[in-house]
């Protein structure tokens, strides 16, 4: 049976295998490298083009200067080295020791049948030679030279002197100091940049990286050795170097884990971080357990520097606020298809959420129920209407945060419109705070979104499932409320023309009339009838007559303002309430409507209107009185020839006298 694995799993297996292979190759190399490369030839014969390690040629001896032999343990180890310089060599030679000084290192050089002592350890520092690690050897070709070494047994550093030609040593030192200075400069520049970003952006994301770069920079300074020769101390420098190396490696692992914790990487970046962690573990394991030397080799130091630079690059590429983006953003697909059963705590609080009425302001009850149900989880409601965002929250702090960074929330939230109903957006800021985004409601013209602030990713005060349960319930209530409002709206409209029906017109118009009376503002009412509509029905049929009514209704509605009320009063009759409108203004509106219908050529047959106008006055103070006077004026218009406007007795404006026959 064939099993189809996802591609990202195959990539993870391949990358992990490659990383393990690299570790297996790296550990032996780390174990076998020494502080300086050693030559394969001896000092006695052959051509020397690189330094010769003298460690294999050292012979342990007892104290040659002891008066009598005794078995008392000594604090020092003695070594003997016999050098015979070939006659083919005629150059100057340097005896070079490790850059990390020993606690005690005395070198006995033969001179006139006796020995001259060179104190190369920390206990022999002098102002004349504070950086003693080299001795110019007075070697004579063809003669044997016996050197003695006295080393403190307390030092964990092995004695590994090297024999260098003078010219080769000078060139090597120049290259080493140039490389060390370059790496140190790069590390200090990156460390300064990391500290500046951490201070300016007030984020702790770069704190582990800054500590790692500091440890690496201190290790580079310590490996130079001069620090131990300048500052007096009593501890073994090799032990400090070993501790700094381990701290550098462990801090690198901490940086990788911090990247995993504070970012939501893609599968590719996850493989990169996984491979880097395996390599870092390999370096740490190889240094602690596989190498016999406590001082890191030069290749290992270069690898650690490369790792520090790579870590800085990864922080830049994976940082949440890269290119001004303050969040990592992830779409979380809902996979729970089971029917959820709310706990008693949820049911007790959700019982108060009742939005089945005509409430238009939903923010307050929703925020109140969220605050009561989800403790210590501030919420922000975002409403998108007419391309404008409105924010509501019971927490001024989180509201200010969302307002400040609104542009970063808008695009991810609007993507939820094309996703599943239970999908969500997970935001995580540079302080590792989680923010959950949900889409609650869609009624066409208005979208409602919810942002929840549960807190730290590791210490969320609520579970994700609790938030999903609450949002699912709110969506159900809002959907029911939307459907209720839809059917209420359908019950208030005329099914043919889409205008208000007679009952709903009376309900709304009475409020408008009372408002105009209280504010002492003018108000007009138009009563309209389609001329000879029965003839249109008899001639063309009822479907054609219905089309004429629909077309006329659209023409009238398009000629009115947003605050005007229009309704189909019955049959071919329409009524219009014009609040805050004088009789003269009402007559102009009526004439505009009449002319547009008269000039309309899309209907099966030409149609005209007869209109009656009434205005609010001391004699006409109710909606019914306005309708009766406007209706009588409309019949007067029909008697006077149709296709005209007739003002009622309440229209006392002298400018309306042009309507008289």
TrEMBL record:
<dbReference type="GO" id="GO:0052621">
    <property type="term" value="F:diguanylate cyclase activity"/>
</dbReference>
<keyword id="KW-0732">Signal</keyword>
<feature type="transmembrane region" description="Helical">
    <location>
        <begin position="204"/>
        <end position="228"/>
    </location>
</feature>
<dbReference type="InterPro" id="IPR043128">
    <property type="entry name" value="Rev_trsase/Diguanyl_cyclase"/>
</dbReference>
<feature type="transmembrane region" description="Helical">
    <location>
        <begin position="271"/>
        <end position="292"/>
    </location>
</feature>
<dbReference type="Pfam" id="PF00990">
    <property type="entry name" value="GGDEF"/>
</dbReference>
<keyword id="KW-1133">Transmembrane helix</keyword>
<keyword id="KW-0812">Transmembrane</keyword>
<dbReference type="InterPro" id="IPR000160">
    <property type="entry name" value="GGDEF_dom"/>
</dbReference>
<feature type="signal peptide">
    <location>
        <begin position="1"/>
        <end position="31"/>
    </location>
</feature>
<keyword id="KW-0472">Membrane</keyword>
<dbReference type="InterPro" id="IPR050469">
    <property type="entry name" value="Diguanylate_Cyclase"/>
</dbReference>
<feature type="transmembrane region" description="Helical">
    <location>
        <begin position="240"/>
        <end position="259"/>
    </location>
</feature>
<feature type="region of interest" description="Disordered">
    <location>
        <begin position="641"/>
        <end position="661"/>
    </location>
</feature>
<dbReference type="InterPro" id="IPR011622">
    <property type="entry name" value="7TMR_DISM_rcpt_extracell_dom2"/>
</dbReference>
<dbReference type="InterPro" id="IPR029787">
    <property type="entry name" value="Nucleotide_cyclase"/>
</dbReference>
<feature type="domain" description="GGDEF">
    <location>
        <begin position="521"/>
        <end position="650"/>
    </location>
</feature>
<dbReference type="Pfam" id="PF07696">
    <property type="entry name" value="7TMR-DISMED2"/>
</dbReference>
<protein>
    <recommendedName>
        <fullName>diguanylate cyclase</fullName>
        <ecNumber>2.7.7.65</ecNumber>
    </recommendedName>
</protein>
<feature type="transmembrane region" description="Helical">
    <location>
        <begin position="176"/>
        <end position="197"/>
    </location>
</feature>
